[in-house]
Amino acid sequence: QHGFHFPNNFAGYFMPFSTPAKFTRKKVPPSYGLCGGMCCAALDFALAERSIPETTTIPRGGTRLQRYLFRRQMDTMGAMGSTMIKVAQWTTLPDDTPLGVQRRTADEFTRLRQCLDDQNPVVLGLIYVRAHNAAELARVIFDNHQVLAYAYTQNNPWDHTLQVYDPNYPGRDDVVLRLRQVPVATAGAEPLVGWEIVQHIGIKAKPVRGFFAMPYMPVEPPEKL
User: Fold this and answer.
1) Tens digit of each residue's pLDDT (9 = 90 or more) over 116-150
2) In whole angstroms, what is the distance from residue 13 CA to residue 26 CA?
3) Percent composition of the chain: helix, strand, coil (DSSP 3-state, to 5)
4) Cβ–Cβ under 8 Å, residues 24 and 43
5) What is the pLDDT of residues 75-87, one digit of tens each?
6) Which residues pair with 148 in a beta bridge?
7) Cα(193)–Cα(188) distance, rounded to whole angstroms?
8) pTM of the full predicted structure?
9) Cβ-contact 126, 147 below 8 angstroms
10) Terminus of the chain with fewer CB atoms < 10 Å: N or C?
11) 199: helix, strand or coil
12) Residue 128 in contact with residue 209, Cβ under 8 Å?
């Protein structure tokens, strides 16, 4: 209802200037995503009690709507790129250790659930990939993603379904994160638990290594987008 009606697939170069001459065509992707910007903007419109733009056409670079989404994308990166540093850190962490991604996600979910209980949607950074060194990190870090969590269902204490707006799939309400509690270690007599996550897109399933809340401050959407 509050999501954009076009997919997260923008033509051209991500940065707001021409492609540097030293980059060859093979090194610069022909398209880019603004998933975090679209999630923040969708929440902006909902909080402002305004209808999302009706356009189904992906906005071209330099248009008012594209510039607004780009600014909101930059906002999710945090002060001095602090959020991108966190994305990089989580991408390099293992999954099933006391300090790994699954355990950290359990701590994040505790806070997320309280926000959703208070009817406050949360922009989430999804960690899809694992990097084992700096060179690999540089190649895969932007394969991670951002979605907007707005509700959850507790199927039982160790199994939850998290409903999300995923800007990659406009108009679809069948995109969810399924969370299953798993042990990651033992601390004394008590096991440490984490969350194993699968993103379901209709009948398709995609593993998610973990997630955390992204920074969000509401912004009044510009007029005449």
Assistant:
1) 999 999 999 999 999 999 999 999 999 999 999 99
2) 12
3) 30, 30, 45
4) no
5) 999 888 899 999 9
6) 123, 165
7) 13
8) 0.89
9) yes
10) N
11) strand
12) yes
